[in-house]
Design a protein that fits this description.
heterodimer; A: about 400 residues; alpha+beta; B: four-stranded antiparallel beta sheet; globular
Chain lengths: ~400, ~220
């Protein structure tokens, strides 16, 4: 039998046994659709996360956090020393982050985390204001009682009204709202950054906590290419200043873009690897289903196989016919699966505001999976049919 | 055309006694003969025809078909001879369901990788008088018509031998006679015809009647 006829025969068998074909194909369709959708969404999710991280963090940034030594070890003077000794450090923003503070406005009470930022926060974090003004040098110098709030916080407190110049209470201390921060959405930690409350770092130190330390700082380096080596130089300056002996652990933590990208990749692995792996399991089950349905079909078609042999079909031709049928079913349902997966990925991505990354390799992978399923599931029934004794079959 | 010497065939089922169905059968059929095989049920007629039709191999004995010793043939060569040299007609017709008459007749041509399979199938259906039933499904045809489709399928590849196992067993008398008429016509055109029957009257239309009993060929009479 030539290839065209083999295909025609397979398609005819499929159309004559629609229900059977449906049950054989549904597993492949679901598997391929899941594979494609999860791979696409996983790619899109990672892409979106990286874009957000790049925007929030930047490629030439180093994040410093206190740690190990407990609070109090990390000082502004540390950062001044770093800036003095490393010419490639172009800017830095000292931060003091405190959670569980009370925000009060009229009859609204909220627990908030207060982020202390310097006037350089706008540049260093690439996040300015959409309304009002950012912190000034004077605000830092005088530990001014001013605050910047996120767009959703502004809406929660003031509704449609402009919050600029309004007074709110933070830990019972009055603050004037100076600006509304650019929207940022949910950060990779799951925090809604549009509910932020920012206060000058100096104000948090002197008026809210009365401490002389900070909790963290972000440092900008002149060139993304030298971030990692600059981080090492910063570490050695900090170790020296904190009097840490060789062999002892750091009393601070450092995050570089490379490290953060690794974490993002780990986070999106669930979508990019584990879910597609689940889809592969579905496909394997689909192969078993096709195989067993076809084995039953071979028994049902005993007479047909016997007759075809009597009419001159070789064992190879019979085997090929069953293999072609399995392949045709899985390819057809694979095609439906690709379409379904494509549409599903688009819909889910649109609802979640994610880009989809449907690339040719992913589609090729999904299709290859369908072909493998077809071949695997067709092998056993094909062998069974080819080996059938025509005398037995025609009885 | 066909020469059988000392052909034996026995079947063994687990838990049952060995059943010797053919006990050293010698049988010769010349080219162009029209042979009827008669005998009681279980006498081995069908087993003999299966061996002659290359659907089964004997346990012992020599069989030569169209000058070829069958024992030398590979499975693929046997398939090729079933396709080109032999044509089968069965008691139960064995037409593919949900497949038109023309498509059913086309089947042997597909396995011989022939060209213009459709027009040759239509030609064969014309020869059995079913030119107006080409696109009918078996379920839409009478038993006699179905058997004529099966005969068209048997003759479509111009085989030298047609083997028919009780071809009229499921037909009424007039349809049966129609089928026998077709066989006679094919025989006139040079085909060798062997058929099994229980009907002495139909057997008498053959040029030779062979009687089978208990795994032996009893008489070869005209």
């Amino acid at each position: 039998m030539n290839r065209k006829l083999l295909l025609a025969t397979s398609l005819r068998t499929m159309s004559r046994h629609k229900l059977r074909t449906f049950f054989m194909g549904v597993g492949v369709t679901v598997g391929v659709a899941t594979l494609l959708a999860t791979r696409s969404l996983g790619g899109g999710f990672e892409q979106a996360l990286l874009e957000k991280v790049d925007r929030m963090f930047g490629l030439s940034s180093i994040m410093l956090n206190d740690g190990g030594g407990g609070p109090g070890s990390f000082k502004i003077t540390d950062l001044e020393a770093i800036e003095e000794q490393i010419a490639e450090v172009v800017a830095w923003d000292p931060m003091l982050v405190v959670g569980g503070r009370e925000l009060k406005y009229q009859d609204i009470n909220r627990q908030v985390t207060i982020y202390g930022h310097s006037e350089r926060g706008e540049e260093v974090w690439n996040r300015g204001v959409v309304e009002g003004e950012y912190f000034s040098v004077d605000d830092s110098a005088s530990a001014a009682r001013v605050t910047l709030i996120g767009t959703r916080m502004a809406e929660a407190l003031f509704g449609e009204e402009s919050p600029i110049g309004e007074q709110i209470l933070l830990d019972s201390i009055p603050f004037f709202v100076k600006g509304v921060l650019e929207p940022l959405g949910i950060d990779p930690h799951g925090e809604d950054r549009d509910l932020d409350v920012h206060v000058p770092t100096a104000t948090v130190m002197r008026r809210l906590l009365n401490v002389d330390y900070i909790t963290s700082a972000k440092v900008l380096v002149s060139d993304p290419a030298i971030v990692e080596e600059t981080a090492e130089r910063i570490a050695s300056i900090l170790r020296q200043r904190h009097g840490i002996l060789e062999g002892e652990p750091d009393d601070f933590m450092m995050f570089t873009p490379k490290f953060i990208r690794q974490r993002v990749a780990e986070a999106s692995r669930a979508l990019k690897v584990y879910l597609p792996a689940a889809a592969v399991v579905v496909l394997l089950v689909a192969a078993i289903v096709i195989s067993s349905i076809m084995l039953v079909a071979v028994r049902e078609r005993f007479a047909e196989v016997g007759l075809r042999k009597a009419l001159g079909a070789t064992d190879g031709a019979i085997g090929l016919q069953f293999l072609a049928e399995a392949l045709a079913v899985s390819l057809a349902s694979g095609l439906v699966g690709v379409l379904l997966g494509f549409v599903a990925a688009k819909i889910i991505a649109a609802k979640m505001g994610l880009p989809t990354a449907i690339d040719m390799p992913t589609i090729a992978l999904a299709f290859a999976a369908a072909v493998v399923v077809g071949l695997l599931s067709g092998l056993l029934p094909a062998r069974q049919a080819a080996r059938l004794d025509p005398v037995e079959a025609l009885r | 055309m066909m020469h059988l010497r000392g052909i034996s065939r026995s079947f063994e089922r687990p838990g049952e006694e060995r059943l010797d169905v053919l006990k050293g059968v010698d049988f010769d059929v010349d080219s162009g003969e029209f042979v009827a095989i008669v005998g009681p049920s279980g006498s081995g007629k069908t087993t003999l025809m299966n061996i002659m039709g290359l659907l089964d191999r004997p346990d012992a004995g020599e069989y030569e078909l169209a000058g070829q010793p069958v024992s030398d043939l590979t499975a693929a060569e046997m398939a090729r001879m079933r396709n080109r040299t032999l044509g089968f007609v069965f008691q139960q017709f064995h037409l593919l369901p949900r497949t038109t008459a023309a498509e059913n007749v086309e089947l042997p041509l597909i396995y011989s990788k022939a060209r213009e399979t459709r027009s040759r199938a239509i030609e064969a259906l014309c020869r059995v008088g079913l030119e107006d039933r080409l696109t009918h499904y078996p379920s839409e045809l009478s038993a006699g018509q179905q058997q004529r489709v099966a005969i068209a399928r048997a003759l479509v590849n111009d085989p030298e031998v047609i083997l028919a196992d009780e071809p009229t067993g499921n037909l009424d008398r007039s349809s049966g006679e129609q089928v026998m008429g077709l066989f006679a016509e094919l025989n006139d055109n040079g085909a060798t015809i062997l058929f099994i029957t229980h009907d002495e009257q139909l057997a008498s239309k053959a040029s030779r009647v062979v009687r089978f009993e208990d795994g032996h060929l009893l008489t070869q009479s005209n």
